[in-house]
Design brief:
The complex is a heterodimer of chains A (350) and B (152). Chain A is α+β, with helices and mostly antiparallel strands. Among the domains of chain A are: 79 residues, no CATH class; 122 residues, no CATH class. In chain A, α1 packs across α8. Chain B is built from 2 helices and 11 strands, in the order βββββββββαββα.
Amino acid sequence: MNAPRWSLLLAAVLAMPVPAPALALQPPASPGGGTDAEDAQWLARERGGGRRGGGGGNRRRGNHQARTGFGRTPRNLQRGNRRPSGGWSNRINADGGRRSLDRARRDWDRNRIADRGRRWDNVDRDRLRREFAGIDRNRIRDRVDRLERRDWDRDWDKVRDRYDWNDVRGDVRDAGRRLERTVNRWDDQWPGWVRPGWGLARPWGWGWYGAGVAPSWGWWGTRSVAWGLGSLATASVINAAVNQALADSRTTIVVPDTGYTLYYNSITSTGTDTISFSAGNGQTTWELTADCRQGWLNGGVPASAAQAQLLNAACQVAYGPADEAGDPGRNRTDTAPTSSSASGASPQRV
Amino acid sequence: MGLAVHAPARAQLLYSLDTWCSLDGTKPVACRVDAIDEGEATIYRHRIGAVERLVRIREQPLVRIELWDEASRRWRTARSAAVLLGDNVLCFDGTALCVVNPNYLNSIREEKGPALAGRDTVQMTFGTDGRVNAYCYDDGCPAPPAAAGGRR
C-alpha cells in the first residue's frame, strides 16, 4: 500500500469520531412537500437523536434540540473562586457522593458504547467501502506495528482535514487498530443476500410486492393526487439502481425524485409484510420501519411524495420481483412488471 | 508535595470540602478538597489518603487548567476537563481524577448564568500549550473524557 493511499485510509478512520450533532437536528430534504410537523414526527425516530441515558437523580435535562448554544456561550470553565449565593459546602453526603461518581463512571462507559454507534452513524459509508475495497489487513498490521507510537489525539482533526500523511502526529498504532476494527465492522454490515443475484438470495418471502396495476395502498389515490404524483419508481428502476450500487461497492441507492438515499443493505424483513431499514439525506441517517402491504412508513402514511418514493423503493428491494435483480440469467416466472424501462415512466405496481 | 511551597502569601482558603474522589476510574473514595485562592489562580488540593492531587485553574490572560506533576515537580496543562453538572462531578485528564465538588460547579453556574442552563455535560480538551483545542456540550461531545484525555 503506498503512502497516499494509507494516509487516505487513516484519514477516513480518523474522520470517524466526528459526530454531527447540529446536522443531526436538521430535517431531511423533503422534495415531496411534507409539512414540518409531519416530517418532525417522522424524524422523531431519527437514529441517535435521543438523549443518551443518564443516571437520573438531580440531573438537569433541558430541551435537547434547543441547546445548540454555540457562539453565545462562554467557552471556558472558570476558576470557581466566586462564592455562590448558597455559600460554600463543607461536606458531601457519603451516599450522594459515591452515587454521583459511580453514575459518572457508568456514564463514561455507556457513552463509550453510544459513541461508537454515533461515530458509525456519521461515517460516509460509501466512501469507506470504496477505500477499504483493496485493503490488505496483514500489511496494515505489519506497517502499524513498525511505526512509532506517537500521540495524535489532539491533532486528529487536523489530520482529518489535511489528508496528509506527513502531518499525522498521532498514535498510528491505535489508528491502525481502529482501522481494522472498522474493516471488520464494515464486513458485518453486509448481509448474505446483498450480492449479485440478490433478488433470489433474499432469505424471506418476496415477489408479491408490485403485483397490481397501481398501488393498492388505501391512502394512495387521494394523496397521490394531492402530491401531483402519478406514479412511483418502477421495479426495474429500483432493481437496476441496486445492481449498479453493488457493482460500484456502494451501499446506498438514490431514491428517484427525492433527496433520500436508501441503505439497501440494511433492509431486513421483520414479518411477512414489514421491514426495517436505514435511509438518509446525506447528512443524517434514520432507522425506519415500513409495512409494505399497508403502505406505512414508521407506522403511518407517508407525509410526502418523497417519503412515498422512499417507502416504495425499500419495499421493492425487500418484497419486489427479482426481475433484473442482479440475476440476468434467470428465466422469470413471477408476476413482475413486464416493463424493463429505466425511465421510471410506468407506474409501480403494488 | 507541600502546598506551602507554591502558595504565595496572599493565598486564601476559600473552603475545605469533605467529599468523594475517584482516581483513574476506580471506585469513589473519601477525599478532602481545599480550594485556595491565590489571586491569579485557584488551586484545588485533593487529598485522598496519602495521595495528593493538585489542580490549578487560572483565568488570565486565558483560562488554563493545570495539574501538578509530582515526578517533574512542575505544573503541566491538563489534557482534558469534564463536568457533569447534574452530578456535581468534575474530572480531569479523562477520569484520572474525578471529584464531587458542588462548590466549584455552583460557582461557575452562577457566574456563567444561562450559558450552562440545561446543560448536563461540558468537556474541554487542551493543547500542550494549555489552550483550548475543543469544547463541547452534551451530545455534541464526540468522546468520553477518558478517550479524549487518556493519552498524550
